[in-house]
Model the fold of this input.
Amino acid sequence: MENWDYIISNGICFDGSGALPQPQDIAVKDGRIVEMSDQLPVARADKVIDAKGQWVLPGLLDIHTHYDLELEIAPGLPESVRHGTTTVVMSNCSLGLAYGAQRRNGDDPIISCFARVENMPKHVLEQAADKVYWNNSAEYLEHLSTCPKGPNVVPMIPHSMLRIEVMGLTDSVSRHPTSEELSQMQALLEKGMKEGYAGFSTDALPFHFLANDPNRRKQIPTQFAKYDEIKALTSIVREHDRVWQATPPKDSPIATLKTFFLTSGRFHKKPLKTTVVAALDVYANRNIIRLGKTLARLMNSSFVNGRFHLQALAAPFKIWSDGMYSPLSEEIDELRELIELDMEDKQARLALLNDADFIARFRKMWMKGKTGFGLARLKRRLRLEDYALRRDMSEMQIESCPVRSWEGQSFQDIYDLYRAGKLDQSDQDFPKYSSLFQGIEDEADFVLAMLRAFDNDIFWSTISANRDPKMIKDLLMNPLLLPGFNDSGAHLTNMAFYDCNLRALKIADEDGEAGVAYMVKRLTKDAADVFGIDAGLLAPGRRADITVIDPLNLRNYQAEKNVSRIHRKEFGHDQLVNRSNGVVSHVLINGELAWDKDHFPTGYGEKPMGQLLLANESAAA
Done:
């Protein structure tokens, strides 16, 4: 008998079906699980992984990533794999590389679309865009099948890029498509579905803007699509039983309801698999999560007969900001004026911060609802505000700053020092900035002074949603929702949710083995079933994507204390990352060892390990 490549022995096996765990040995050969039994002869294996006392799970899925670009620069995608993720779904929120770089007529769509929506520096995006050599969806799949990726990748057809492909960038944000152009989009989407793309992604959040002139003040192309265009395109997705990934038109409840009724099988003959960003308990507006849960119940009811999955985040929604550069700032007109300027253009920002008209508008925005009487004050007191950023200085924690003693304190703490006349004594580094902290009348003036003094060198954080651990657990365990919305690969210095699969398992472990079995199924088989791919189960004949977790270290893991900002030499830029060392002991992808006791094997990311997973392969499997 031939030797097996690996045996994972003595493990506590959660197979992904939702069943309670069983002691199982797992034998792996040529990328597949070949045998599972409560006792296999370790002598038959070339390598043995002793998983005594550890959980052995199907490789975890991350259903909401923007890894399309990082895959071209650092294809091992190490920040996800180290946390046990073996499959990533890409091309979310209408953005991706299915049609190449699309550099035509002086436009650079990858840079313009990704830079602000996903908060990625232009020089990092240029590195990725310069590597793109394909020009259509079929060639992109060929590229994905051969690039030296770490995890398995699942691409979708992105709506913004589809519009650009047919209409060109400027026209795609200036007018509606002609009937001929809509037919061309339908034909390209039909082609993508036949090629095996897992779905189609759109976006309707009104604060997603382009980053290049002359369209810097326009939203990304998908935002300009009317209901009839979305309906025509999603009908193709429905016919192929693929996934529509979407975001709601935030400022219009009626448009949200009308749009998401497209999931209905009762009104459209066949349900449309729909996954939506996101089920977040926004602190500034307590009604949002109630509306989201109501929407999920309605769309999955027998009356509507939909297949509707809001994505839930397994963490407090903590956002870090470089100056005012963060996704939260895009919602507010005055803050958006600052961040629509290129990050490198410090002089332009300083000129705006000193402009009398801007100062007046900024002050009015910052103080809205904080003084006097009126609807704005009432909405603030009732936590029914329009924006996720609360504009509360006590919630703005300074992570790093040129005045070092301020680190770890809030904006409010420093403002209190100013009002007490003690700011000059606060730190030996402060005097060089003291001239900028004169004549401050209120907190709006103080925030402006902080931005003039430090620009993007002040790095601060706030938790805008998911502050209540009980609510996080309620959302994660809700069978109508789906764990996800990690945004991995985007917002390089704004978010660190690469470990959210582990956070979800830790939360589920509060309910014992039954809770863990349920969450494993949600992070593996359930996610794979929604996207129609061959993944998510441990069974003979299945691809050997396997994650081994130490449950004791998971229970002791403190995620919020393990976020750090590091310099990624591949990017030439910083990134917020997690370090869950000791929690995930081993990761196998396609039968190869991808993570081994807190390190990657030699040569990781230099040759293909994961596979390109296509939706039309699931039926054959």
Q: What stands out?
A: The mean pLDDT is 95.
